[in-house]
Specification:
With about 80 residues, the chain is an all-alpha fold. InterPro entries: UPF0239.
């Protein structure tokens, strides 16, 4: 009766090339997603100076509001 039991593992077919490609692609995609999430959560080592990086708005407004030359009116 003990000789009737078969405890050998079932035969599993070898994965194909496309199955291996899919497995490694999913693995790399998961690593990329973790890196992206960590980049959002972990702050940069040096805080950026916001005032230096922004362009002054007053200079842009004054440049666009130059006085226009008046055309000579011909009567």
């Amino acid at each position: 009766m003990a000789s009737d039991l078969d405890f050998s593992p079932p035969e599993v077919p070898e994965p194909t090339f496309l199955e291996n490609l899919l497995q490694y692609g999913l693995f790399l995609g998961a690593i990329f997603q973790l890196i992206c999430v960590l980049a959002i959560i972990v702050p940069p080592s040096e805080p950026r100076n916001v005032e230096v990086t922004r362009k002054p708005k007053t200079a842009a407004l004054s440049a666009s509001k130059r006085p226009k030359k008046e055309a000579k009116k011909k009567w």
